Amino acid sequence: MKKHITEITVPLGKGPTAKWSYISLLFSSFFFLPLIVGSSPLNDLNLAAVLLIYLCFIGAFFWALFTVGNKTALPIVGIITICAAGSYIYVGTNALFGYGAFLSSYYFKLKSAFGFLMGNLASQIIAAYAFDLLHIYFLGPSIAITVALFIYGHFSRNEALNGLNNKAQAQQMEQLAAIAERERIARDMHDLLGHSLSSLALKSELAEKLLQKGNTEQAQQEITEVAALSRTTLSEVRQAVTGLKLQSFRGGIEKLSEQLQRLGFRTEVNISTVKVDASLESTLLMLCKEWVTNILRHSNGNFVNISVEQTNNQIELEISDNGLAEPIKPGNGIQGMQSRVKELKGKFAVNVNEGVTMNVVIPC
After folding, report:
1. Do residues 23 and 158 share a domain?
2. Which of 53, 130, 252, 323 is the most exposed, having the fewest neighbouring CB atoms within 10 Å of its CB?
3. How far apart are CA 204 and CA 227, in angstroms?
4. What would the pLDDT profile of 97-129 be if each residue is shown by its tens digit?
5. Beta carbons within 10 angstroms of residue 34's beta carbon
6. Are residues 132 and 31 in the same domain?
7. Within-domain flag for 20
């Protein structure tokens, strides 16, 4: 049974968009704007306190980046508390409330995240009232940024969950394909060796009985046949083992084709002889699985073509379907595929002019 992921299980600081989390800290520089424009003059002691507030914020932010689940509540509350309390000393803290809103809507479901949002907004209003900051210049930017980042965090959460579910589905397909391949190999080995080994056992027993009866000439003939059958069986096993790699790749593609057919797609598979190392073969099969997953989730077509062609210096994979699509915005799944291809110095392209076509060219 397919399991649907509904909770963020990868910390924001370790996910595919981790770099954007660090880049977002550039916007925290607005914290220092009142100092730069001179609207909030401070003495040395207060200046040191402002720097301490910012460092505490940075610490809580990174704490939240590398935490998941309910444990993220503490650093999020810490950010909101730091901003609210710090408003007593410095008005620039209104630029940092939004980080707490983003983190809460990213890590928590909407109902819980909305509770954090209400607490965040209440903290701003209470701080403004308590510290004589109840004016548009403090609350206006603070509330606007908080609400905007809350909404952005919610959409980022949905995108991250989709990425996690796509990855889990691809892994599940890979596991099922591996199980099916093991079963196929077991059947092939049973069919290949079962009869031969049974014949070897019977002929050996017959030769033993003939020797006991002194019929050495016929026993010698049976032993000769045992030796010949053994050599034939060994040759067949070697041929089977040599072909496992090719069969495994073809078998994986055929399993994907069968899955598409079961769900109503017509399929066409064209695979030339593929002779690549195990790492590249695994990458190609994974790319096929991930793209077929995208087709199953999003395509409105009914025909899929899978083509794999190898030349002397490159291998080309192309999967196309006849579904209609608007220009595709790369999500976590496509970005992961692009990264795999880039690591192998290959080219990855998606075309939506006539249906949807994924094309990968990798040097080999």
Report:
1. yes
2. 130
3. 10
4. 999 999 999 999 999 999 999 999 999 999 999
5. 20
6. yes
7. yes
Rounded alpha-carbon distances, angstroms, from residue 107 to 26, 75, 272: 21, 12, 46
Q: How far apart are CA 353 and CA 327, in angstroms?
A: 9
Residue 306: which CATH number? 3.30.565.10
When divided into structural domains, the chain yields a total of: 2
Q: In percent, how much of the chain has pLDDT > 70?
A: 89
pTM, full prediction: 0.57
195 C-beta neighbours (distance < 10 Å), count: 11
Residue 138 maps to a domain: yes
How far apart are alpha carbons 179 and 337 in whole angstroms? Answer: 24
Say if residues 346 and 361 touch (Cβ distance below 8 Å): yes
Instruction: Name the domain boundary from 142, 168, 194.
Output: 168
Give a yes or no: residue 53 inside a domain: yes
Amino acid at 105: S
Strand arrangement of the beta sheet that strand 347-351 belongs to: 266-271, 303-310, 314-321, 356-363, 347-351
Domain membership flag for residue 107: yes
What is the residue-wise DSSP string for 160-176? HHHHHHHHHHHHHHHHH
Q: Is 132 left (phi over 0), alpha (psi -120 to 50) or beta?
A: left
Q: Are residues 33 and 161 in the same domain?
A: yes
CB atoms within 10 A of CB 137: 12
Q: d(Cα 165, Cα 189) in Å, to the nearest integer?
A: 36
Please write the tens of the pLDDT for every residue from 54-103.
999 999 999 999 999 899 999 999 999 999 999 999 999 999 999 999 99
Residue-range definition of the domain harbouring residue 56: 12-168
For the stretch 112-121, contacts whose Cβ atoms lie closer than 8 Å and that sit 24 or more positions apart, written own/partner, are: 113/150, 113/153, 113/154, 116/73, 116/76, 116/80, 117/146, 117/147, 117/150, 119/77, 119/80, 120/80, 120/146, 121/146
Q: Side chain identity at 133, as an amino acid letter?
A: L
